Sequence to fold (213 residues):
Amino acid sequence: MTPLATLDWRLRAAITAAILLVILGLFVQREFTGADGNGASDAGSAGLVDEAPATIGAPAPDFVLRTVGGDTVRLSDYRGKTVVLNFWASWCVPCRREMSEFEAMYRDRLGRSDFVVIAVDYRPLDSVSEVRGFLDGFEQREGRSIEFPVAYDTTDGAVAERYGVAPRNAKQATLPVSYFIDRNGILRAKVFGPVYGDVLPARVAETEAAAGP
Fold:
């Protein structure tokens, strides 16, 4: 093989390796930042939109986040509804049963248009593909999809931090955590762990009673 041919071979190999590295980098970015056209990019207005602390008896900190469908959800848009704000992750075993009960209550009250669940995925410890896998698995098990908003937190978990779920970019988090917010936007209760069985309807009833007539 001539020196020129050897150089051409090495050049082609270097170019091929560079292309593969770029493809790998784009895949990693898609998985862990959600920058795939439908996911959890932090661009634009996604994240917290006020400085309010998460204090029981005070207005809930407002936020705008991207949903799994590529839309946006803003907490304050649900004034007039009782809100269950649920922080979860795809690897969270108790979240499976809890999601089923959330979905059942949401569907049961859909005609009244006075209740909503907003499920916020804890992004520092989750990926877009894992979240979608969780939702696909839910539909297969339950025979129905989740219809209430499922959103991605920012990639550093800014909303979860404000709500006292976990520090930003935490390496571990205890989930699920749920907040109950009345129709006036006031935080009424915080629950660590799943809200199974009678706990969910009881907490919702207490939240609605606290809002007054």
Q: What stands out?
A: The beta strands are 47-48, 63-67, 72-74, 82-88, 115-121, 150-152, 177-181, 187-192.
